[in-house]
């Protein structure tokens, strides 16, 4: 209560004495959020707070006052958990840092005392590869290490995420500060590379300098992006890649690993820096060292690093033209053969088991190296298809890679299958024919059959290969596999993939047989089709009147005249080919109907029935109510010229399509038969004569037919023409039912 105000606000801290440690501990650990902010403010305002607390810590340590040391541990831990950057800046200074770490050695939850100060003073050695003369840089380096040790070792169990993030930001800021000061010190950088190049420098010193260079490049990630790029360009100009080239030739495997790490840092930052060096004359050996490192057994998992570097250098999607061609040309001419030779030397001869072979490269080559070589080859197939095709076809590379199917490691056999699958994904006809011609899938089929019914990765990889060939419809491979290996694969036909594969093979055979039959019949069929097309073109191009009639009908399609019975008048065409002239609204079912040609004898026999049916229709039509004269006048005076053209086009259509053989005769017989109607259609008579003519047409026609029945029966062609003419003249439209088809009008039924 003494240290709190009336509103329970913390007014001041208790005095730092041994007797007040419980009160200070309670104030630090049991305060709320508001009190924590006030506590932070009070600690920062008291300049001697931490100095007095550390003096009390040393007294307790000298007196071996374990209870007091435990309370001081909890007080320091609580203050650190306040997560105040200003407090961190104070306690992480050079004066207090070691005492703060010492106070954290007495954790009451740990049965024995920790010895963090002893470790930092005696066991941690600061290796100075090159003297750093700036005391501020040295101070930041030491502080960064101690803060990291505090975060990762001393308080690893008790820190929350917010405090850890704050400590990481301190480390990150210190790294950026150190690298910025060092990179701006031109004397320091020049001295560093001068020592690396000097032949008098001891081997151990060179190793330390390379490790320092690696750490220096790694810490540069704390800089901003622009500063990182500038630093890496400066290091390249100073000759860092020459230093790495020398490091890769070292017998020290750890130094080789450090060199590859430096290259990966450059590739992650700016790959073009390394590529521009490799294409130079002095940079060519570096590419060879990378290939050599990929096939060398280092005893550790370093082969993936070489693989990643080579993939970045050979990536055709990010390379510019000149760099790409040069790097790829160097790789294919000088180094691809080395990788293939490793595969051939590591595989046992045919018929000899892996376990029986002793000595040589077979035992020395690690399976991981062979797997990485296959990965790089698959990468090259995807990125350099043309060069891969030429190289593979000339040097039989596929045959040599498939030697991996003889290895006892199943994942190497799967790697070979994956390599073949990648090649086939290019859909290159030359490579596919190369597979068929040289029987290259035999090792894969043999490995699949030898694997038996075991459901493993090899089984799935081969089945997926067959499924891909089937889905992509690679017919030559389908026929090749079934023709060559079905006797071996028939035992696995119960598998859905192989069953579908066999079905695909049968479909290919059927399609090839069908194609042969079609090709043998095709010439005559094509000639017939051409003749039909020619006939149709001649027909449609022959008559300009038909085009005119079609255009006029299109204009009248929206405003058709209406007859007295309310049915829209439709001027139907009698020709099955004249669909373009007239649209049929009601006769959709009969639009494709084509009446068969009729002989003359059949026509004469049918005309008798036609005459009788027409007489009945005329009588029924004459009994209906007459159309008003005004409506008829409007209907008949509406565009008689277009009606004329329709009549002419339909006569031409009938003469060509229905009865072409009697064109002349029908036209001669049509003239006397339509004399009394032509005045209602033509332009020479006036409209009153047309109306009178249309009113009396039915009775005149009936009298005329009674007088000359024999003449009408003897010319059936004229009958068809006359019925069409009556439809066009307008007064006999009601004689044909609205739902009757044009063919019914032609046949008179």
TrEMBL record:
GO MF, any single term: protein phosphatase activator activity
Composition skew (Low complexity), residue ranges: 687-698
Acidic residues biased stretches: 534-548, 583-592
Disordered: annotated span: 512-644, 658-749
Keyword Nucleus in annotation: yes
One GO term describing the cellular component: protein phosphatase 4 complex
Compositional bias segments (type: Basic and acidic residues): 522-533, 593-602, 622-632, 673-682, 701-710
Biased composition annotated in UniProt, kind: Polar residues: 549-563, 658-672
Record Pfam families: PP4R3 (PF04802)
The entry's keywords: Nucleus
Annotated InterPro entries: ARM-like, ARM-type_fold, P4R3-like_central_dom, PP4R3-like
Serine/threonine-protein phosphatase 4 regulatory subunit 3-like central domain sequence ranges: 26-507
Main location: nucleus
The protein's name in its UniProt record: Serine/threonine-protein phosphatase 4 regulatory subunit 3-like central domain-containing protein
